[in-house]
Structures are given as structure tokens and as C-alpha cells.
Amino acid sequence: xxxxxxxxxxxxxxxxxxxxxxxxxxxxxxxxxxxxxxxxxxxxxxxxxxxxxxxxxxxxxxxxxxxxxxxxxxxxxxxxxxxxxxxxxxxxxxxxxxxxxxxxxxxxxxxxxxxxxxxxxxxxxxxxxxxxxxxxxxxxxxxxxxxxxxxxxxxxxxxxxxxxxxxxxxxxxxxxxxxxxxxxxxxxxxxxxxxxxxxxxxxxxxxxxxxxxxxxxxxxxxxxxxxxxxxxxxxxxxxxxxxxxxxxxxxxxxxxxxxxxxxxxxxxxxxxxxxxxxxxxxxxxxxxxxxxxxxxxxxxxxxxxxxxxxxxxxxxxxxxxxxxxxxxxxxxxxxxx
Length: 337
Ligand code: PHE
What we know:
This protein is of the alpha+beta class. The protein contains 13 helices and nine strands. It has a seven-stranded mixed β-sheet with strand order 1-4-5-9-8-7-6, sandwiched between helices. A two-stranded antiparallel sheet has the order 2-3. The model has no long low-confidence stretch (mean pLDDT about 90). The structure holds phenylalanine. Phenylalanine binds next to strand 8 and strand 9.
């Protein structure tokens, strides 16, 4: 009698676990077989009706069966959870979604793109040049002879073969003018190198160079183009001012300031209480530069400008340490997505 019942229960358990479809049904099986009023529990309770010998035999058998059911429950649970995830069922829909890890452009790349787009709208074409330069293109052709103190102003990295790392993007002016005939309008973004490092200086940084050459290009054109650029990048209310300056390759030369975007010109720590931020150097192309590329100075005139990308980005985003651009901390980079 008892034996038959045990055999019947074994068969029932086997079939039940084969058929079980979801976690809810599995929970029901647990109650059905192992619960307080469950079938195995029921048989265990009835052991006391049996003889000592049978008690021993069926007691052991039922305990093995109990262990087996527990094992089946665990295995089935794993299997069902796995399946449920597969079918998008049984998931906790109140959980927040998993955000896909989307990349983004580096803030400096974003600023370079923005600058190139602004100048492209004015008919400027984007060109590039090599980062390893000769002293001739980087200095001499730009009217900076060997004895000129400007060579020391831009602490230069010299390579073993006598080449240098370009200290500014201005050699691209020379390369472009040698390759092309005027008129031309170019901007040239890229990396430049100077032996200098602190919170405001990095040995590698970025500049964008601009050059326009035509038959009638005046200082007013320079002012117009650069004022447009400032308003495009820093907003339509941005004020600009031009101060006389000096570069060997432009004459006259200027530096352009914008009204401090932090204090609105009232004076603060960032603008050293002047209300103005210096953002670029520019000027009319020096006749010596035109001579170096064989452009006839009685026909052609032009202006050039150069600006530091990091400085623009720091002002635009209120960043006070240039090294943040190169540390590549994800939290910093992700804030520009
Ligand atoms: N090359 C200059 C610099 O790095 C900037 C500049 C470019 C000035 C073109 C005038 C004209 O400081």
C-alpha cells in the first residue's frame, strides 16, 4: 500500500516538473509537495503507522525524494528565470532601463567643428598641415629669422633630425600659399607644441589659423570677419575690442579681446578685473611673407589670424584647468555629450 503510494508520488513529481511553465506554477509545486500539508510531508507523517523496518526503509526513501524535489525546484527556477528574461516576461518593468553607452565628441573637437562651421559660412575652406615642420616653414618664411627673439618666445621642441614640432599653425599659411594661387580663404585647425606646462599651458594644444588673400582685403574685413566669429561662438551680444600688438608676420598686428563672459565686463578674477578676455592674434599679412611665397605685393593683400582652441573652450564652458581636456576622465567628458 505505502509502497504504491510512494511510487505514484514519484511519478507525479516527475510529470509535474516536466510540465511546469512559469515561476508561479513552480511555487505551487513547492507547496503541493513540500508544504506543511504537502504530499511528501503527508507521507512522512504517516510513517508512524508502519513497522520499524518499513519506517526505516520508507523514511530514507522519502527523505531522498524530498532532497530531490528541492534540487528540482532550484534547477527549474534558474531555467525559468533565464527563459523569462529571454522572452521579456517576468521582468520587473518598474526597473529603470539600461542606458546604452553612446560615445560623444571630445569638447575640443566640438569647438573645432563649431569654429570651422562658422568660418565655412563666410566662404573659408578647411585645410590642414603637418605637425612635424621645418624651421623654414615655422619661422623663416614667416619673417622670423634665426636671430629673432620670437623664436625664444615659442619654446620649441627640436627633433634629432633637425625638424621641429610646429609651435603654431601659421606654417600652414606658407604651405597653402605655395600650393595655390590667390584669391584664397582658408582656416586650418590642428595640434601645436610648445615646451611649457601648468594649469594654463599644455605642451600640446590646438590652434586654428585663418588666412584671406584677395585684391582688396582691408583691415575692416579683418575686423568684420573676427567680430562675426566672436558673436557666433560666444553669443550675439558679445562685445569685441582690438588692441595694437606685434607679430613678425603681420603688419599692422592686433590682439582681439571679448567682453568677459563671466562678469559681463564688470571685472572679475577670470578677466583680472579688466572686463576683457584676450582671445586671438591677427593682422594684415606682412609683405615679407608674401615675398617668401612669390605673391605680388602690388596686387595681393590679406589678413591672417590665429587662436587657441583650449582657451576658447575654457572661456565658453568656464573651465579653469587646461589639463582637464587631456586627463580623459569620463565624468568630465560625459558632461559635454
Ligand atoms: N601664430 C600666432 C601665435 O601663435 C598667432 C597669429 C596668427 C597672429 C596669425 C597673427 C596672425 O601666437
